[in-house]
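Our preliminary data section would be incomplete without showing what the modeling component actually yields. Below, a chain of 310 amino acids is followed by its predicted structure, encoded as tokens that our downstream tools consume directly.
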Amino acid sequence: MILENVLGAIGNTPLVGLNRVVEGLRAQVAVKLEFINPGGSIKDRMALHIVRKAIEEGKLKPSTTVVEVTSGNTGTSLAMLGAIYDFKVVLVVSPKVSQEKIGTMRAFGAEVVVVDGTFKEQRAAALEIGRKHGDFFYVDQDNNPYNAEAHYLTTGPEIWEQTGGRVTHWVAGIGTGGTLMGTCRFLKEKNPAVKCIGVDPKGSIIYPTFKGMKDIRYEKYEIEGIGSDIIPGQLDFDLIDDMIQVDDATSFEMARRLAMEEGIFAGGSSGSNVHAALRVAERLDENGLVVTVIPDSGCKYVSKLFKGKQ
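Predicted structure:
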């Protein structure tokens, strides 16, 4: 079958069991390889859904400029869609975003603006850029309900089918919250006993807020794509059974282990997810099946995570 364009290649990604990094554990741990999507990450799913809905609702026309704050993967997906649908894309990123991701977004034709500041400051910059362009559509992935809906419609059903309904735990990093929440809602509808565990880096305010801590302060960290200095609007703490906090060093080392021991070339947030999934699996017997996600490829972080490993 010949697909009309690359958008037909989004989704239906493989679920792969881990072997060496899980040595000694009785429960099975499986990872969903999202870097196989044409834009190279899981964000293709929600970007496509949001753009299609915006077109249907008349919010996005060929003359419209799409504007978003991104850690790179959503921006790449939007830039790819801009190339296909022929609309302009302007993306605001923080200085910690890898040069590989910035280069990829520009290769698709997007304008990339680096803004050093809080998310609120980056959002304000994005909106100001949008106003200068006149007719613009702000994606607002942290609050756009079509973000989580994309995973409710695709990621959740795929995992349920691929595991034959045997999944017991769903583990995912929290950036916008869309991947965790949409998939969680679907799986819990199928089986309320499924546990949903969020993953958040040290420095982010999401984990301490979930745990009810006091004197919460945001601190910078190097992991890209998860964590925040705000609480995403679509995040529903009532659906989350637990949350695990990770750090840069542990996450990056696990990413390197995935490459060397599993042949899976993955980014830093993938290391976060797998580390958290292993911690969950430690408490389970042979009936446990922990599923997590590999959001993107290590190709986007060679200069940052794998420097000196060549």
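Residues 6-37+155-305 form a domain with the Rossmann fold fold (CATH 3.40.50.1100). Residues 198 and 243 are 5 Å apart (CA to CA). Preliminary results of this kind motivate Aim 1 of the renewal.
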